[in-house]
Amino acid sequence: MFWGRNLDGMGRQRPLLLVYEEAHLYLRGGTSQFVVGSSSKAARRVFKEGRKYGVGAIVISQRPSELDETVLSQCGTFFAMRLSKSDDQGPIKSVVPDSLGGLVEMLPALRTGEAIVLGEAVQIPTRVRCPLVERRPRSDDPEPAKRWGEKRVATPPYGTAVTAWRRQRMSKRDEQAG
Fold it and tell me: What's the pLDDT band for 129 if we cut at 50, 70, 90?
């Protein structure tokens, strides 16, 4: 993105969005050796300088209290879903005006799919209800040892998966497998 920032269809004309899922596992606060690894340094650099080159970031974490303060300070908008631990509510409370503190008090009581949105994307902190995925994914874990012992599929249907992703609909086969 740095080298192509001014080229047509790249950089600032075609921004890139990086998603950091379960960010508390690798963007932790503190100074341990694990925290200062190469990937962690690179991610912090994206947060500090990425906007100049058309790189944005989404941080997803169930434990905001464990995130690096530099990373949190670069976040412009927060979608805070149910948080029951007071330590995890702290980073959210710090960006809410005192007059709207009651909104943060609702964090432990939010329903599935509800969030409090605050920051640059909204004029005032707001409680919203996000639409739930039509067919919720199964939450049971796969069994790697069992699956790895089965015969491998020669040509997995990647095209079908990508088409379903783009259409935001499950393939007929996946719907039937439920």
Answer: very high
CA distance linking residue 39 with residue 112, whole number of Å: 32
- pTM for this structure? 0.62
Buried/exposed 147-177: b ≥16 CB within 10 Å, e otherwise? eeeeeeeeeeeeeeeeebeeeeebeeeeeee
Secondary structure class of 119 (helix, strand, coil):
strand
Here the tokens at position 16 are: 């890139």
Decide: 47 and 71 in contact? Cβ < 8 Å.
Answer: yes
> What is the average pLDDT score of the chain?
79
- For residue 55, what are the CA distances in angstroms to 4, 51, 52? 12, 5, 7
Q: Give the distance, in angstroms, between the CA of residue 164 and the centroid of all CA atoms in the same chain.
A: 21
- In this predicted model, what pLDDT tens digit does every residue of 18-68 receive, in sequence order? 888 888 888 887 655 555 567 777 888 888 888 888 888 888 888 888 888
Domains in the chain (CATH in brackets) are 11-129 (3.40.50.300), 144-177 (no CATH)
